Amino acid sequence: MSEIEKEATGGTVLVDPLGGLLLDPPNELKFRGPFDDYVTVSLMIKNPTEKRIAFKIKTTAPKRYCVKPNSGVLDSQQTMKVNVLLQPFNYDPNEKNKHKFMVQYMYLNENEMQLSVSDILNMWKDVQPTRLMDIKLKCVFEQSESEQTRHDQPKSEKNLQSTQMPLQTKPETRSQTNRASNIEENVNTKFESVSSSINPKSPIMNANNNHSARLDKNDNLANELIEIKQENDLLKAEINKLKEEEARLRKLALDPPRFNRQNNNSNEILIDLLHNRSSIVIIVLLAIIFYLMLFR
After folding, report:
1. pTM here?
2. Which one of 28, 40, 107, 231 is most buried, counting C-beta atoms within 10 A?
3. CA angle 82, 85, 89 (to 5 degrees)
4. What span, in angstroms and rounded, lies between the C-alpha atoms of 178 and 287?
5. Around 4, how many Cα atoms within 13 Å sit in the side-chain half-sphere?
6. DSSP 133
7. How far apart are CA 113 and CA 220, in angstroms?
8. Please, are residues 71 and 48 in contact by the beta-carbon 8 Å criterion?
9. Looking at residue 22, what DSSP letter applies?
């Protein structure tokens, strides 16, 4: 069971009070044959609200379709074109088509509106289901007039042969039925050989896959370039901090000599004071000695 079928089988149906996205076409995607080559249908998605909306596109047959872009972010009143590419296959008009698409979207809050597109696209894994809205589309396959006549021609020929067959005896009837069965087998074998010659993995398909791979590679390179620029800005800021620190250290390295000079000057003053005190003490001692000698 696909993701769309799982989500459609249970859970509450959320009604968007703001109206949600506008799709063109609104209900179904019509693919017109021939289907032995790629068929592309355009889907226009518009955000008529005043809020920013993130969306992504899912399908019940992801191997049969290529959607570009399959997700995005729409600002208010913005319109985006989405190309849906149907890959070649053997079309059977009697086979019932059950392919469906679903456009899933959510409104962004004030904090999420400031995020980049890449960050918003990475949010889908952690989004609460109560925030998600969706719009479903059916896929319709329509044959071209040439394809319709080609498929109807074997039936008309068979009906014509049955109406023109005359009444005959039993042995002749058996031979006619054998011939008819042989003709039908030949037609079936030719049809099978033609259908088998149509290879889904044609050079055109390979070229489209290569183009998609190149687009994905370009997106990855763009993201890597943004990360490199951010790292470059961080390195520049770190270099500026280092330069400021270097200038501060140089300034501190130049200041100590002044402090040393002041210390030297203060030391010289102390030495002078000590010398002066010692000389005064010597003079006082000499005076005392002289006094004692005079009055003895």
Report:
1. 0.47
2. 107
3. 160
4. 163
5. 19
6. E
7. 23
8. no
9. E
Are 72 and 106 in contact by the 8 Å Cβ rule? The answer is no
| Cis status of the peptide bond prior to 69, with omega within 30 of 0 | yes
Residue 203, token pair as written in the block: 């050079």
Q: How far is CA 100 from CA 58, 90, 140, 188, 295, in A?
A: 9, 19, 9, 31, 136
Residues 52 and 17: their CA atoms lie apart, in Å, by: 15
DSSP class per residue in 193-222: HHHHHS-SS-HHHHHHHHHHHHHHHHHHHH
- Judge residue 64's burial from the number of C-beta atoms within 10 Å of its C-beta, 0-12 exposed, 13-18 middle, 19 or more buried: middle
- CB contact at 8 A, 73 and 67: no
Q: Which amino acid is at 45?
A: I
pLDDT value at position 13? 47
Give residue 148's pLDDT band: very low, low, confident or very high (50, 70, 90): low
Residues contacting 147, CB < 8 A, separation 6+:
33, 34, 91
Exposed / middle / buried, residue 106 (Cβ in 10 Å: 0-12, 13-18, 19+):
buried
The number of residues making up the chain comes to 296
Q: How far is CA 5 from CA 1, 2, 135, in A?
A: 6, 5, 13
Q: What is the pLDDT of residues 240-257, one digit of tens each?
A: 888 888 888 888 877 655
